[in-house]
Amino acid sequence: MKKEALWVFVVVWGVACFCGSHGCQEQERVALLVLNTTLDLTYSEYTGGSYFNCCSWRYVECNPATGRVTKLMLSHLRYYRFGSKTWYLNASLLLPFEELKSLDLSSNSIGGWIAPKEPNLLSSKLSKLEVLDLSDNSLDNSILSVLSTIPSLRRLLLISNNLSGTLHLHGDFSNLKELDISYNAIDVAATAKGIKNLSHLENLHLDGVHLKHAGTVVRALGALSSLRILSLQSNTIEGSITTQDFHNFSKLGTAHLG
Predict the structure, then answer these.
(1) Keyword set for this entry (predicted)?
(2) What is the largest CA-CA distance in the chain?
């Protein structure tokens, strides 16, 4: 009986993998067609010749067993055609991807997200999204209120955008483990206080910023109890940083300064 049960399991698993690898969810395929049109990709650029199997399309990765999209690699696509001309992404286009774990939309001249009118849609539909790369776009501080509705985020990259002043990351950002807000015109001292509640944050990048009152900033970041890696490279630094400033870091293993 055990051998028969094992054989049935192998057959069922094989059929699932076979079906999943030869197709994809229709709603996800349609959403990808619309999204790719928004990014101004030609048919051959994203399908690779296979219209029905979106799991075989360029920039797309799927779970081979279920056929659900798990990763979208859409960086540097719209920028090549339109340069720095900004546009707004309708976040509703992402709602069908309920198994999505990683999304890369870097370097696409995105000026902002148009969030769904229903406030809980992003959190319910994108409940498995862990990695989001929005680097090298034109996003301002308003993007934070949209992203704060996605509590599953673990890694958030907002390098080289139009973030400025004080950033407040509260509420549903509490599960973040990695945050990179380098090369933005932010008030680092005030932002350090605004992110002190990110108790799970392990990796923080603040490169390429104007670092005033450096010692005070480092001491404020000591409130991040899980921090293991801190990068403050390529900064304009005012004030001194001493070993005593790192006194409150209980888990810090690596600090990049300069």
Answers:
(1) Glycoprotein, Membrane, Receptor, Signal, Transmembrane, Transmembrane helix
(2) 74
How far does CA 146 lie from the centroid of its chain?
Answer: 12
94-113 residue pLDDT tens: 999 999 999 999 999 999 99
Please tell me the distance from the alpha carbon of residue 210 to that of residue 225, in angstroms, as a whole number: 24
Q: How far apart are CA 198 and CA 192, in angstroms?
A: 10
Q: Which residues is 62 bridged to in the sheet?
A: 69
- What does DSSP assign to residue 49? T
Give whole-number Cα distances, 192 to 133, 138, 211, 231, in Å.
Answer: 21, 22, 11, 13
The percent of residues above 70 in pLDDT, for the chain, comes to: 81
Find the distance separating the first CA and the last CA of the chain, reported in whole Å: 66
d(CA 88, CA 71): 21
Report how far residue 151's alpha carbon sits from residue 221's, in angstroms, rounded to the nearest whole number: 22
Burial class (CB in 10 A: 0-12, 13-18, 19+), 91: buried
Please tell me whether residue 46 adopts helix, strand or coil conformation: helix
Tell me: the pLDDT tens digits for 28-77? 999 998 888 887 776 666 676 677 888 988 899 999 889 999 999 998 88
Residue 170 maps to a domain: yes
Assess if residue 53 is contained within a domain: no
Q: CATH number of the domain at 249, please.
A: 3.80.10.10
In the chain, the number of structural domains is 1
DSSP state of 128: T
- Domain carrying residue 208: 70-257
Kindly state whether residue 191 falls inside one of the protein's structural domains. Answer: yes
